[in-house]
Design brief:
3 domains, single chain, extended
Length: 410
């Protein structure tokens, strides 16, 4: 068998003569490119020749990355436990990011170096010669998730015989290297409300809010719930005897159409929790359920009776609120209260962290209450709020040691 090696642009390729087609009599050739060096191309070609000589060689299926990606996505979620709709949607977005690099390329021709370069471009972004952004750079978590999807797609390719080796294996997630100065000056905190601002916001919700606005935002502020958790709360999650709320689920509704919602278990075990709640908040929720009771009687068989606490009235009576509505309602109230318009319902979660820290709750207690096993933003807010107290503790220790010294020690 003969072989040749040639360079195209910055990469090397090989071309092997692998015999004659018994039907047409034409010479059969096999080629592959994308190798960083000629040596790598030669080594790969040698492996192919060795397999052919030993009779263990299997021809890879001619399939584009787009075709493989579609096949993988079709099978994703059907194997093993059913995947959550939210996860499937994310995986779909992640796989489509690779289409801009590999869409019509035969899968067996995609090299490890090409895949690695795709990850680097996804992280750094790419602009054309005129300075126009073609690919927007992604955050580390987004690149990491996309890489995980890439690994799964190519692993599926190995399984169905489209490729022999997974080019995504061993690739690294490009991350920005921070200097000591960067770390020292990293004081960036998420936006949240100060105590007096929160009081003004809730007062505005009470006096100028739309239907159930006060109950919605008062509950978010006093519990630190995620909006999806709030919208999924049901009557049996409320313990009025002990003033507790149990969080076991979240609402998923990407289309924001009330009747197309679905309820899922939380993404992590830490999110399943039971928290103590201010008695006044619980009374507000009890009143809310009484109002829903009146609505049920008016609507009779038309009421969507699934026990949702934050339920719609009117045409879609009984259906859970959608997150978009909560976001829009908050923007309206922030404007009326003349507060930062960039805040979101999630900012109330950060506000809850800051006020708990100020009240003296430990980081562990806050993490448990918010349903976090570990969260960098929560930790950062906590350290920021408790900094004066930590400084005070150091001063007290110093004073204690000075007071314990004997006159002869001085």
């Amino acid at each position: 068998m003969k072989g040749s090696f040639y360079k195209r642009g910055n990469t090397w390729s090989y071309m092997l003569d692998v015999g004659t087609d018994p039907i047409t009599g034409k010479r059969k050739q096999k080629s592959k490119g994308g190798f960083k060096t000629k040596k790598e191309a030669q080594a790969f070609a040698a492996t192919i020749l060795s397999e052919m000589n030993s009779g263990t060689y299997l021809e890879e299926k001619k399939m584009t990355f787009e075709e493989l990606s579609d096949l993988w996505f079709e099978s994703y979620g059907k194997l093993g436990n059913p995947k959550k709709l939210g996860t499937i949607r994310i995986r779909d977005s992640e796989r489509k990011r690779f289409l801009q690099f590999f869409k019509k390329i035969i899968v067996s021709e995609i090299s490890h170096d090409q895949y690695q370069q795709a990850l680097i471009t996804l992280k750094k972004g790419h602009m054309d010669d005129n300075g126009k952004t073609i690919i927007k750079g992604l955050a580390d978590n987004s690149v990491s998730g996309t890489h995980a999807t890439g690994v799964m797609i190519f692993e599926y390719g190995v399984k169905i015989g489209a490729i022999k080796n997974n080019p995504a294996k061993g690739a690294f997630i490009p991350k920005e290297t921070k200097t000591v100065k960067d770390l020292e000056e990293n004081n960036e905190l998420p936006k949240y409300l100060e105590k007096d601002e929160l009081s003004r916001f809730l007062e505005t919700a009470k006096n100028h809010g739309l239907e159930f606005d006060y109950e919605i935002f008062n509950t978010l502020a006093y519990t630190g719930l995620r909006v999806g958790e709030l919208c999924s709360l049901k009557e049996n999650d409320l313990n009025f005897e002990e003033d507790k709320i149990r969080i076991t689920k979240t609402v998923y509704n990407p289309t924001n159409r009330y009747n197309l919602y679905s309820v899922h278990t939380p993404k992590t075990k830490a999110s399943i929790r039971e928290i103590d709640v201010d008695p006044e908040v619980m009374l507000n929720l009890k009143d809310l359920l009484l109002q829903h009771g009146f609505e049920k009687k008016r609507k009779q068989n038309k009421y969507h009776d699934e026990g949702f606490v934050f339920a719609r009235t009117g045409e879609y009576a009984g259906y859970p609120l959608v997150i978009k509505i909560v976001n829009n309602r908050m923007k309206r109230l922030l404007k009326l209260a003349k507060l930062n318009p960039d805040l979101s319902p999630h900012s109330l979660r950060h506000t809850h962290v800051s006020l708990l820290a100020e009240a003296g709750a430990s980081l562990e207690q806050i993490m448990q209450r918010l349903g976090h096993s570990n969260d960098e933003i929560t930790r950062r807010i906590y350290l920021h709020i408790t900094k004066p107290k930590r400084k005070e503790a150091a001063q007290k220790f110093s004073e204690l040691m000075k007071a314990s010294k004997k006159p002869d020690d001085c």
